């Protein structure tokens, strides 16, 4: 190699490597909850009584608009729960948005799109720390959304015990009342928060979710909190 070639080779090392832009390819990153805006949802529970008995109705709303509805025939229902678009929830409907399937004594749930045998959207598992019902509830959520930017597995954040022997979670000064339904779903790897569910009145929950967490998945989690006996 000549002296001139050596200088040329040495100079090339300081130059940045340039790559041509590839049209049609976008780099997708996982959602960063620290900077991603959260959407507020409201989940309302109401009751009706007729000759068929008492029914419990649930609706999830965003900005006052009803997105999905569901109806329970009984408090201990194990029958699949149809989830309807909008405000009308009917078991006879053949055009539902999803079904929430209950299993293992109503502590395991599977949310399926369109019908009972449709694609699985999420699964939800309820339990208690060390299986002790006197200790806080634990949720494990698995998402099956195609090309999801949300981690496939989320867990509930464990509360801390105060000096007054109370279990508390940090909801960043948001309104709430004490309840076993108060949960924060996080990425287990880095504890970043993706979904925060708070009880704000006797029959109302509020949920703050990252923008890419679908409202249907939010509703599925909220319904499981009502249906699960633990």
From TrEMBL:
It comes from the Eukaryota. Residues 138-224 form the Tubby C-terminal domain. This is Tubby C-terminal domain-containing protein.
């Amino acid at each position: 190699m000549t002296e001139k070639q050596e200088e040329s080779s040495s100079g090339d090392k300081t130059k940045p490597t340039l790559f041509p832009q590839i049209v049609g390819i976008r780099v997708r990153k996982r959602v960063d909850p620290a900077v991603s805006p959260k959407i507020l949802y409201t989940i309302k529970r109401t009751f009706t009584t007729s000759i068929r008995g008492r029914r419990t109705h649930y609706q999830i709303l965003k900005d006052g608009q009803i997105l999905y509805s569901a109806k329970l025939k009984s408090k201990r229902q194990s029958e699949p729960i149809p989830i309807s678009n909008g405000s009308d929830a009917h078991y006879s409907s053949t055009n539902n948005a999803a079904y929430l399937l209950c299993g293992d004594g109503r502590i395991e749930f599977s949310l399926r799109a369109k019908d009972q045998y449709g694609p699985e959207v999420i699964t939800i598992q309820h339990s208690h720390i060390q299986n002790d019902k006197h200790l806080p509830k634990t949720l494990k959520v698995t998402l099956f959304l195609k090309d999801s930017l949300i981690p496939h597995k989320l867990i509930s954040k464990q509360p801390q015990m105060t000096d007054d022997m109370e279990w508390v979670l940090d909801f960043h000064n948001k309104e709430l009342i004490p309840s076993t339904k108060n949960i924060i779903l996080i990425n287990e790897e880095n504890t970043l928060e993706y979904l925060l569910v708070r009880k704000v009145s006797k029959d109302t929950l509020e949920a703050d979710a990252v923008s890419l967490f679908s409202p249907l998945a939010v509703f599925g989690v909220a319904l499981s909190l009502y249906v699960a006996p633990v």
